[in-house]
Amino acid sequence: MKTKPILYSLEPFDLAGHRYRVALTVPKPNPQGQTVSLPAWIPGSYLIRDFSRQIETISARSGNRRVALSKLDNHSWRIEPCTGPLHITTTIYAWDLSVRGAHLDETHGFFNGTSVFLLAHGFEEHPCLVTLIAPALVNWRVFTSLPQAPQPQASPKVIRDYVNGFGVYTARNYDDLIDHPVEMGRPQVVRFDACGAPHEMVFTGVIPNLDLKRIARDVKAICETQLRFFEPDTALAPFLDSALKYVFMTMVTGDSYGGLEHRASTALMAGRKDLPTLGQKKAPEGYQTFLGLVSHEYFHTWNVKRIKPAAFAPYDLTKETHTRLLWIFEGFTSYYDDLMLLRSGVIDTHAYMQTLGKQISGVHATPGRHKQSVAESSFDAWSRYYKQDENSPNALVSYYTKGSLIALGLDLTIRSATNEAFSLDDVMRELWGRFGRDFYQGAASGLKEKAFVRLVSDCTGVNVSEPIARWVYGREDVPLRALFAEHGIDMHWQTTSLLPTLDVRTRKQGDQVVLATVFEHGAAHQGGLSAHDVLVALDGVRIDSANNSLESVLARHRPGERVKVHVFRRDELREFSVKLAAPAQTLCQLKPMTSSS
Ligand SMILES: [Zn+2]
Predict the structure, then answer these.
(1) In terms of CB atoms within 10 Å, which of 407, 430, 442, 443 comes out highest?
(2) Ligand 1 centre from 40 Cα, in Å?
(3) Model pTM?
(4) How far is the CA of 454 from the centre of ligand 1 (A)?
(5) Contact 529/515 with Cβ under 8 angstroms?
(6) Alpha-carbon distance values, 27 to 88, 89, 107, 187, 550 (Å)
(7) Closest residue by Cα to residue 62 from 19, 21, 30
(8) Contact predicate 588/360, CB 8 Å
(9) What pLDDT is attached to residue 595?
């Protein structure tokens, strides 16, 4: 018996009001009553988001008859029993300019399937057909990695819409359907082949004279390096199991940064100033950060979209899903993202060492790494990493940044132990072969927590159980200085400033300077200052975000001096006595050892 597809249609019908109309047709609904729901979270972003709260209206009918719905919980509805095809229509508000949600205005539309497509329970594995309806009055095109159904024999308007990418798309099942975000509008586009596989980069937003050629050249080099990394013999692109091309969709704004990975595409946010302009000899400083983001999300095509923790195979999108392994899936990805920039020749060794030094400095600056392990940080992503506050640097460790240092530590350890015969690269390829390559071809299983140490030893012969116990489950720093020394690299700490310090992080609030974080055991903490305090004066000299910056006021003092600090805590003026600390050694410097040193 042939499985009937579940049908969806989506129309951006109210651009000014930011509303999509989305319909779902279930050909043979559950005769006991059909249940439908939206995901509570989107894979890759570990926070309950309740996308269903943006559903403004929902109604159901069967034939010409209205059918009653009742809500079961935050994101599910039950529809009263009916025979024959069931049609459900929703209007959905889309004004979330992030990689995780849905957005619509007169310039463009963007959506993730998790924000718009209801799941018909019991039909998870049925194929889906989605009709994207072109909005009236604008001449938009569609960009997505979802495969388009063959060209219809139809009217000139249908043909024109088809050419613009509107019309019918196919998905293998619901999990596939919600893993291909869609961009619509008139963006700037550049295409290239990497190892023979088609890639498309789409830039939405106002970006005059964007140097698309330069971006395509650099990104192509990064993609080819990664394709050859995972498949040294064939360089076969992983996403060809699900799509005909890979799509990078970037929303460009004044100042933004972020990305979310999918099986054959990624949604990115980037700042305009970080992108190269035509005719510019030297790319802007932030361009390397943008390429690092591109490299990171592309690496996820293998690591987390196909090689997955067992807890994500399959995803349960109704509730939090815990895994202690995000240090592998985000941490290793964070290690390889910059390393791939170096290996592809997009940056040189000097730039790579600087970037690595900054990353080490960042981890070193969080006292929370002594309180939480990366295994705990992974597990608590939902309630802690994704819900950070002013005290997070004192309480948490990042499974991204410390995870990347663990990857570096394991890489150096394996290289030393095997005299460079093996490295972490072999571990990644082993993971790919065992879990990733056939994930969407009927062999969906994931990495179990306890299996990692054994897997490393199987493919490299090195027993990493002790470093894993110390660095991952314990709270020890990765002994990078010693590991680097074995590889002829000198690591040392420098001070970035000669000024005394309060041991705080600050932020601007209008012309005021506010304490964002007070580091535990630091000068401000010992003196009684608190996060959210508004700095008023230091020894009677005003502090503001313009001419009297905290740095300029501190410059007249010396470490060890005791100063009076006036702050507003809420609306009350308070005075504290703070002993200024010596400038901290906060910058990690890496350089090749010379033979004489
Ligand atoms: Zn990531």
Answers:
(1) 407
(2) 20
(3) 0.96
(4) 25
(5) yes
(6) 11, 15, 35, 36, 66
(7) 30
(8) yes
(9) 58
Ligand 1 centroid, distance to 258 Cα (angstroms): 9
pLDDT higher than threshold 80 for residue 517: yes
Q: What's the 130 CA to ligand 1 centre distance in angstroms? A: 28
What is the distance in A from the centroid of ligand 1 to the CA of 333? Answer: 6
Q: Decide: helix, strand or coil at residue 33.
A: coil
pLDDT digits (tens, 9 = 90+) for 328-384: 999 999 999 999 999 999 999 999 999 999 999 999 999 999 999 999 999 999 999
In a 13 Å sphere around the CA of 367, the CA atoms on its Cβ side amount to: 11
Determine the Cα–Cα distance for residues 297 and 349; give it in Å rounded to an integer: 22
- Each residue's pLDDT tens digit, 280-333: 999 999 999 999 999 999 999 999 999 999 999 999 999 999 999 999 999 999
Instruction: Measure the CA–CA gap between 191 and 247, rounded to whole angstroms.
Output: 9
Average pLDDT over residues 553-559: 95
pLDDT at 82 over 60: yes
Compute the distance from residue 303 Cα to the ligand 1 centre, in Å.
Answer: 9
**Ligand 1 center to residue 469 CA distance, Å?**
24
Return the biggest CA–CA distance within the chain: 87
State the amino acid at position 272 in one-letter form: R
CA of 103 to the centre of ligand 1 (A): 22
CA of 334 to the centre of ligand 1 (A): 7
b/e 22-33 (16+ beta carbons within 10 angstroms → b): bbbbbeebbeee
| CA 436/CA 259 separation, integer angstroms | 21
Cα 300 to middle of ligand 1, angstroms: 7
- % of the chain beyond a pLDDT of 90: 93
